[in-house]
Design goal:
The complex is a heterodimer of chains A (272) and B (436). Chain A is mainly alpha-helical. Chain A has one domain. Chain A contains 12 helices and 1 strand; from the N terminus they run βαααααααααααα. In chain A, helix 4 packs across helix 10, helix 7 packs antiparallel against helix 10 and helix 7 packs parallel to helix 11. In chain B, helix 7 links the parallel strand 6 and strand 7. In chain B, helix 4 packs across helix 5 and helix 8 packs antiparallel against helix 9. With 436 residues, chain B is α/β, with parallel strands linked by helices. Chain B contains 9 helices and 18 strands. In chain B, the strands form 4 sheets. Chain B has a 6-stranded mixed β-sheet with strand order 5-6-7-3-8-9, sandwiched between helices. A 5-stranded mixed β-sheet of chain B has the order 12-18-17-14-15, with no helix packed on it.
């Protein structure tokens, strides 16, 4: 028989245990999001592949052909795709995550489960897209006869960083969105803006040295640089200061995101 | 006290209501106040209501102890705090003060079909809904067939739920929830949806839960269901418990307090319904003892009294009433066939005509009375008010001389007459019936 005391302000020591206990719900919500995505569509799951391809084509033409941005000696398509994968994951994850609480308001006001399950599970669909894009990248590399070297084993580190960055920002935004619906407009704008601000179409090498560390305040700089470095076999340089700064920012975002979310979680059902 | 499975101690919940400000609201104002006091908005929680806001206590100092195996019904008017109580118990919202001590696995049913996604099929939604309600995947798989047969949707398992009729939807939703097996079951007005057959199913399921030794806490406006199922009843009024005791007693108190209708309607001559021939004074419900009552035992006769003034001579009067139950279904019409005045042209004056409905005739529940007066030869409707008074018929479970007999489950039907029954037995040797 489990003993439970419900009281105002009682910090749930059980919360993290609860999150583990509700892991099946986490998977069910992710499964639901995936299923629903392509119900009643004709092209179906292929949209997950078509989107990154189209963006890549546009960026190749605009930045590669017209602007003639340097691509570190690697075919521009691969160059841009390496950055596009983490970026599109991040953008989609932050958008989904931000809207997740409000989108599931019916659940929040009627059932108990640790609320963090919702933003966390909303990232999974973007993660699946990332995997598909990864397959596409592999195919592209085969086409260009490009083989990445051993640095590829560090890729999971950067993947985890991307995940953490998306979750950290996502938690902040979803919690804020519950109370202030203005963020509905802010998020797409930030994402658009971020695409040009982050080193997707260009490398961070072209950023002047004295600004580079400051530039790394954008967490995706560290992530994208990392992705490029590990996949392209060092064709781009590794800049320790910017990695450390980005990593620090990601950790800060995640920890503060979790704290803020937990703090405001108890008023969600009242305010949503 | 050691057996208590749920203990509420001084539980209180406060909400802050905002009233319309002179200027608008939103992020701009937050930015303004943030610049003045930087950390305030981050904290998020409301500590003190601002000038344009008001405190509202949904629950105030609720103290309640529930033992294992009790089936507790919570009744109260809309806004009394019942749903808030269940929400706090289900950990959906936090209390402002006080605490609850729970000693068992809890499952809450605050809405039917929580988390159902219209694009997913019935099969997919069973898994989804089950997971949301706290069942593991194995559990759902094990009970899958039972759930499907309870819901009676075998044919439509793979159709998207958005194509279901509302009846199917609600059956499926309840089927999943009905197969939860927690130690404590918390149910909120789920019985309000669905047709009569479905509601009966729900009641039976909840009854089974109670009989299996589970603790059930439920909120319902259906006082018949509450009195049928619960071993104990609690009345909530404006966030406080005002009565806690046997179901019948609490249910009557609730009905009498909250009943929207009244057993008497009187008019001043200036605004009384009627024309220049006849005018109402009053319509009343009387017991056999002669007192005005709004609650009547099902075994007793009840009188519908018309108090009216005849203004012009030479008319034949035909007072009659139409009874309707709480669902608005017309039960029957009572026509005044008193031989003393039948076909007789009445002189002007004040008359009080009472129609007596025998005991053991009406069904339980609220009965609305529409009172009308016509004149005959030629027929002309003079005056009348539909649903002008109401009274309640109560069937006490302990009574042995009602039409219920020894049956304890809910009885269908708009009437409940006590009939005369005969039984003949057939002896093995005789071919003719043997009468006792």
């Amino acid at each position: 028989m489990q003993d439970l005391i419900i009281e105002a302000g009682r910090t749930e020591r059980q919360y993290w245990r609860d999150l583990w206990r509700y892991r099946e719900l986490f998977m069910f919500l992710a499964w639901r999001d995936l299923l629903v995505r392509y119900k009643q569509t004709i092209v179906g799951a292929t949209w997950s592949i078509v989107r990154p391809i189209l963006t890549m084509v546009v960026l190749t033409i605009v930045f590669g052909r017209f602007a003639k941005m340097p691509s570190a000696g690697v075919p521009y398509t691969i160059f841009v795709f390496c950055a596009l994968i983490p970026w599109q994951f991040f953008a989609a994850a932050v958008s989904e995550c931000g809207n997740s609480l409000v989108g599931n308001s019916a659940l929040i006001s009627k059932v108990y489960f640790p609320r963090m399950t919702i933003p966390a599970s909303s990232i999974i669909t973007s993660f699946v897209d990332l995997m598909l894009s990864g397959v596409l990248l592999a195919l592209l590399m085969m086409w260009y006869h490009f083989v990445p070297d051993l640095k590829v084993v560090t890729l999971p580190v950067f993947l985890l960083m991307a995940f953490a960055a998306a979750l950290g920002i996502g938690l902040w935004i979803s919690a804020l969105m519950v109370r202030y619906r203005d963020f509905r407009f802010i998020v797409p704008f930030l994402v658009q803006f971020g695409l040009y601000l982050s080193p997707v179409g260009f490398t961070s090498d072209i950023v002047p040295a004295e600004w580079r560390t400051l530039y790394a305040l954008n967490p995706m700089v560290g992530v994208i640089d990392g992705f490029r470095w590990s996949l392209l076999g060092g064709a781009t340089t590794w800049h320790w200061p910017s990695f450390v700064v980005s990593f620090g920012i990601v950790v800060l975002l995640l920890v503060s995101g979790i704290k803020y979310f937990r703090h405001t979680e108890r008023t969600f059902a009242d305010v949503i | 006290m050691s057996d208590a499975i749920i203990t509420f101690e001084k539980l209180s919940k406060r909400y802050i209501i905002s009233h319309q400000r002179a200027k608008g609201d939103g992020f701009r104002h937050v930015v303004e106040s943030t610049l003045r006091r930087p950390w305030r908005w981050l904290r998020g929680a409301e500590d003190r209501p601002a000038a344009h806001q008001e405190e509202f206590w949904a629950l105030r100092n609720v103290d309640l102890t529930i033992q294992q195996g009790e089936v507790v019904g919570i009744v109260g008017r809309n806004g009394a705090g019942k749903s808030t109580l269940l929400k706090i118990l289900s950990r959906i919202t936090e209390p402002t003060e006080g605490r609850i001590h729970l000693r068992g696995r809890t499952a809450s049913l605050l809405e039917v079909g929580t988390g159902f996604h219209p694009e997913l099929s019935g099969r997919e939604n069973i898994y989804l809904n089950g997971a949301i309600l706290g069942m593991s995947r194995l559990e759902i798989r094990r009970k899958f067939d039972e759930i499907v047969s309870f819901a009676e949707i075998e044919r439509f398992l793979d159709t998207p739920v958005k194509r279901y009729s509302s009846g199917m939807y609600v059956r499926l939703a309840f089927a999943v929830a009905a197969h939860l097996e927690p130690e404590i079951l918390v149910v909120d007005e789920v019985l309000a949806v669905g047709d009569a057959a479905f509601q009966r199913k729900c009641l039976d399921k909840m009854d089974d839960a109670g009989k299996a030794g589970r603790t059930v806490l439920f909120v319902s406006h259906n006082t018949q269901a509450v009195t049928r199922l619960s071993t104990r009843c609690v009345l909530l009024e404006k966030g406080e418990i005002t009565l806690d005791g046997p179901p019948h007693k609490v249910a009557s108190a609730y009905l009498n307090a909250g009943a929207v209708g009244s057993a008497v309607r009187e008019w001043e001559p200036s605004d009384a319904p009627g024309d220049d021939v006849v005018r109402f004074h009053a319509v009343r419900i009387r017991s056999e003892a002669g007192t005005v009552v709004d609650l009547i035992d099902i075994r007793q006769a009840v009188g519908i009294e018309f108090d009216y003034q005849v203004l012009k001579p030479g008319y034949i009067f035909h007072p009659h009433f139409l009874l309707r139950n709480e669902d608005g279904v017309p039960l029957f019409v009572g026509n005044d066939v008193d031989p003393e005045w039948r076909g007789v042209r009445r002189p002007p004056g004040r008359y009080v005509s009472t129609g007596w409905i025998p005991g053991n005739f009406l069904a339980e529940g609220a009965i609305w009375v529409g009172a009308h007066i016509m004149t005959l030869a030629p027929e002309k409707w003079r005056c009348g008010v539909p649903d002008v008074v109401m009274f309640r018929v109560v069937d006490p479970l302990e009574a042995k001389d009602t039409a219920r007999g020894d049956y304890t489950r809910p009885l269908l039907g708009v009437m409940r007459p006590l009939l005369r029954w005969t039984t003949k037995t057939y002896d093995a040797e005789h071919t003719a019936p043997v009468t006792r």
